[in-house]
Amino acid sequence: MNNLGTLCLVASLALLVFSILQTSYGVWKKEQKAIELGRLALVANFFLILLAFVILITQLARMDLSNHYVVMHSAENLPLFYRLTSVWAGSSGSLLFWNLLLNFFTFLVLKETKNLSKERLPMLNLSLGVLSCFFSFLAVFYPDAQPFREFQPQAVVGRGLNPLLQHWAMIIHPPILYIGYVSFAIPFGICMSALLSGKVSAEWHSQIRKWALFSWFFLGVGILLGSKWAYEELGWGGYWAWDPVENASLMPWLLSSAFIHSIIIEERRGMLKFWNMFLMILTFHFTLLGTWITRSGVLEGPHSFSKSTIGTPFIIYIGLSLVVYTVILFLKRKNFQPERNLEAITSKEGSFFLNNFLLVLSCMVILLGVFSPLLYGKEFKAVWYNSWGIPAGIFLLLLMGASPLLAWRKGADSVFLSTLLKPFLFGVFCAVVYSISYGKIFTKTDFSIGDTLSEIYSILVIYLAGFTIAGIFQEFYRGIKARKQIHQEENYFQACIKLLLNNKRRYGGYLVHLSIVLIFIGYAGNAFKQNTSFRFFYKLIEPKGDEIVYYGTDQAIVGNYIVEANTLKIKPLINDREGASPNLFNTIVTHEATYNLKDNLKYTRKMLTERRFYPQISHLTGSFETHIPTSEPDIYSTAKEDFYIQLGALESSEFSENPDLAMLFMEYMFGTSSLQDKILVAQKFPKEIIANLEIWINPLVKFIWIGSLLFFFSGLFVILPTEKIL
Amino acid sequence: MKFLVLFYIFSFSLFAESITTNLTNPKDIETFYEVTSKLRCICLPSLPIKSCSFNNCEISALLKVFIENRIKAGENADVIIKKMLTGFGTEVLDDPVIQKFQKSGNINIVNGVVYGFGEKILAEPDSTFINLTLLTFAILGLLSILVYYKKVKLQTKVVSQTNSTQSIDKYLGEVD
Questions:
Q1: Which of B:29-88 have CB within 8 Å of A?
Q2: CA B89 to chain centre
Q3: Which residues of chain B neighbour A694 with C-beta distances below 8 Å?
């Protein structure tokens, strides 16, 4: 099957070269048949890549150990679902998935734009063909991008899927993020076809906007899902660490956020045409840069792939492509002259200018931060990112609140009393209430150290959130009122729904703004985040079957919360299909600690946190190599804050060296056959252990997830096609 | 100018966090907070060591205990940070935390503590150049907007009033 897969990729490369040559010849000689042939070759390429993808999926499902990728990223004992999703766990599989998505979107857009302007189509085909050709070229010539490399001699077992990826959010996070990344090739292709042919019309604007929104939405959802995964799986009490790979996805999202706003100015006022083209070129190349950051191995991060041979060709391609398209844009700049000038800085257009400025500046901050080890010889961390990111975020929130309320062409002074005053006052009200109450609402520990600047930021965010929310409600109210004057038979609810459906772009956009405000409220809670840890003592009690059980009675007090130790078990978890018997390869050893949580002296719930040790099996010998630890935190979530706990390392109170309890447990479980032997091994476990329990109190985090959900639904509402209802 | 003032105010931002420590004296806790805010996590360089949990990084957790020991020994924040950069000398080999590192064979950390980690241990290295670069970009960006606002002439000489009115009407018409 490896040969068949490789053949598909080689055929894809040949077909794409043919498509590029045919299209170029057709454009040069103005020969429609050649252009059509080039287009058909590009369409056919999708089916070749699809076949290659199906072959890899089949190999993963069948655990074909002659395939290098299958050996390195899957295992026999994994449930079928995880075996299939391991297709994006490694570099070459994920690049094939990238290629598949690219060709799928190319297929869609070629079908969609078939009847639109013939002059631009060849250029669109050419842009997308060159990109696709590059990915097929990598898959044919570079081992780190070849998903069908032979494993010679055939491996004994698969090494398995990275345990961190065995989480629900990791199943959907990569494909959603990839859809966001890859689909930017389409609005880019459309823009470049307009650039190269020099013709932009309303129908193409609508195509660009539609695809840009689609990509922006998926990239945003992917980033938010990644945050959720980090929060629930990494066990460090946070959701964003300014890690290079996180940053890699945030940069194109910020640029595309600027684009989807500035394209409105181009459509309505005929301004920023040159800028929008440049922004799309940048956005697309930043998606490629993100892919490069993850795969080149130049910058390390928790979820970057190891050092790879594709780094050099990839960065050369990005550099060349960026320079070529930018030079073309510069040479054709006369086609993109503004039709109108900016008439007032505090007008709606002016606010969009500032919004673009801040979003691009934020992207620059991240770009320089990410490459600081290469550019400045030192690495800048979260503290530095926050020093730019938080003020920029606050200004963006201000613009997000003010912009919808401002008038086109007129300064803010002309509309202050009519549209800005009430939201402004509501914002002030929210800030005052918040300032008075936050000290009483959020939990404080004995270790709390106040930070005045953070508290000021937090109050500012709440003020701006109140301002923005009030502005959104005011806009809806005015829209509904205006509609009701014409359609008096409608009640407020009907009018609101019809208002939304009739102008999804504007009112749907307000809902997206609302979701981002909620996420910002969640970030504001960070100012009052608490982190502490406790050491709980446990005594060994008699083993019960396959479990080593410790019992503790210690208590810890954190603000109004009391955490009472209960049992701490070292036990097996079977990571296999149902009914499979435990063995060295499918048994995860878990340290499972349970605690009783009391809130204001009332029993609230039992909390369970684990440290899991996944077995790493050698693919060459089939024997056990080592354990890979993962974290399983537990979160008691309320509207005001999350009480987040994570079990840390276990220490013996008797020995200075910490015992490897996971290995000892493996011996207890698999190294003994009789009950007597088991008892003997059980005696090797320390009689008393100390468990480190880390506790975080994260105020307002729930707002982030509610905002994320609203972002998903409102974004979906905006991008899905619906009919207008009069 | 206003922007510069705002930038100055906001450029020292840091979201607050409480801190995990075995110290009890409030002044010591403040010192511990200051030191651990300024040093980076050994395993996750993007985090300051104060936000780096035991779970993520046992080495950092032990280093935090070492910092507590230095505070208990009477050293202030500046001294500890300076010594982290340049080294505490061989006398710290008696510290139980360093002995633990030695026993577990973590020579890099032992050497780092004894002879200094250099600038790479700082959570926020000197950011003058990178901030100046960004500030230049920011000023250029704002100037471009200003130039666009003030000086760009209309390239399309005849802008029909009808077109202008149409776009406003289109916008106003959206409510219905």
A1: 29-30, 33, 37, 40, 44-48, 50-56, 58, 61
A2: 28
A3: 20, 53-55
Could you identify the residue written with the tokens 């004994």? A156
**Chain B residue nearest residue A532, CA to CA:** B20
| Nearest CB partner across the interface for B47, out of A241, A451, A530 | A241
Pairing of β A641-652 and β A561-574: unpaired
Task: Enumerate the residues of chain A whose CB falls inside 8 A of the CB of residue B18.
Answer: 444-445, 447-449, 529-532
Interface size, chain A vs chain B, as Cβ–Cβ contacts under 8 Å:
214
pLDDT of residue B13 exceeding 50: no
How far is C-alpha A571 from the geometric centre of its chain's CA atoms?
33
- The alpha-helical segments, DSSP class H, found in A442-571 are 452-486, 492-502, 509-524
Distance CA A378, CA B104 (A): 29
As a whole number of angstroms, the distance between CA A125 and CA A123 comes to 5
Residue A283: the pLDDT is 96
Question: Do strands A530-540 and A548-551 pair parallel, antiparallel, or not at all (unpaired)?
Answer: antiparallel
Contacts of A479 in chain B (CB under 8 A): 175
How far apart CA A381 and CA A372 sit, in angstroms, is 10
- Least reliable range by pLDDT among A407-416, A704-713, B141-150: A407-416
CA distance A513 to A509: 6
H/E element holding A604? strand A602-617
Burial A189-201 (b: 16+ CB within 10 A, else e): bbbbbbbbbeebe
Q: Extract the tokens encoding B3.
A: 């922007």
Q: Do A235 and B55 touch (CB under 8 A)?
A: yes
For residue A454, what is the nearest residue in chain B, using CA coordinates?
B15
pLDDT digits (tens, 9 = 90+) for A605-644: 999 999 999 888 888 888 888 888 888 999 999 999 999 9
The residues facing A643 across adjacent strands are A636, A697
In the predicted structure, residue A116 carries a pLDDT above the cut 80: no
Instruction: Please state the rounded mean pLDDT for residues A276-285.
Output: 94
List chain B domain ranges: 2-126
**B165 or B78: which leads in pLDDT:** B78
Nearest CB to A646; choose among B7, B48, B53:
B53
- The mean pLDDT of A662-687, rounded to a whole number, is 84
- Return the closest-CA partner of residue A174 out of A73, A279, A265, A43: A73
Phi and psi, residue A248, nearest 5°:
-60, -35
ipTM of the complex model: 0.75
Q: How many CB atoms lie within 10 A of CB A547?
A: 16
The 10s digit of each residue's pLDDT in A496-524 is: 988 888 888 889 999 999 999 999 999 99
